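Sanity check

After download, print the first record. It should look like this:
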Amino acid sequence: MATEIIERPQVATTTPTRKPRKHSQTLGARMKKNWQLYLLLAVPLIWLAIFAYWPMYGAIIAFKDYNVIDGILGSRWVGLKHFERFTESYQFWRLIKNTLILHGYELLVTFPLPIILALGLNLARRRWYRRSVQMITYAPHFISTVVVVGLIVVLVDPNTGVLNQFLGLFGVGPVEVLSNPDWFRHLYVWSAAWQTMGFSAIIYLAALTSVSPEQHEAAIVDGASRLRRVWHVDLPAIRPVAVILLILNIGSIMSVGFEKVLLLQNPLNLQSSEVIDTYVYKLGFVSQIPQFSYAAAIGLFRSLIGLVLLVVANSLARRFAKSSLW
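Expected structure tokens:
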């Protein structure tokens, strides 16, 4: 009886060759190889450590009765005494109200204007016109705050100011603008809008460059008007950037432009111009007996409120706008 021989296929015993694994370089080797980049990175890190993180050590004087002789560590610990003093002070609600109203008014005006300007420049067809408007609008950003306040003082001067001379043509008497508390917020906010609108619009113009021309072409084919294209194509493109900037502005709602407020401030408009920043400055440096601990406590209180607002705004943006800082 013949036996059948079944030939089995031979299985290759050779294993696939593996590529040699690259050894990861150590941090020292990478720093030695790219020392130029690390040297450039060291400059802002050193600045941040000296001017942003090292001063945090002095924040503990908010919990002490600080005096120069005993120093920061040697001063007597008083806990939350200065915080309670501020919350019970008659100045507390006035400072909070002035700060919130001034920054809220500024946010309401200066946040949408750069978006409107960027959308308008993006729709402009003539290149020379777009560049001219952009240059004229962002040039005031490079003017110092002191010069801007000087211009405001000259323009609204009751005797020689352009504003009062123009009103005099209609028989209106000279208006004391700087000494009127009702005018202070308008001067501060609209001068800030004039100074920052053009430069802030650059961020949104950069975001609009990411919009594909094919989306506009498809919208035109579908019969969308120019306003519809702005609403459905351009605005969604800049929404993430706008949300992030809005979160940052809300986080700084307890802090306003200190230099500008102080320069525009005078004894006659303190009712609406006295904010937390100027009050802290006067307590710590201008008063006859400097109250360093009390001023530090007020400044720390302001920073904590700003941190809480930043976290809340970020959470709301992540939930509703699907965009956030973290």
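If your output differs, re-run the checksum step. Summary of this record's structure: Residues 137 and 198 are 4 Å apart (CA to CA).
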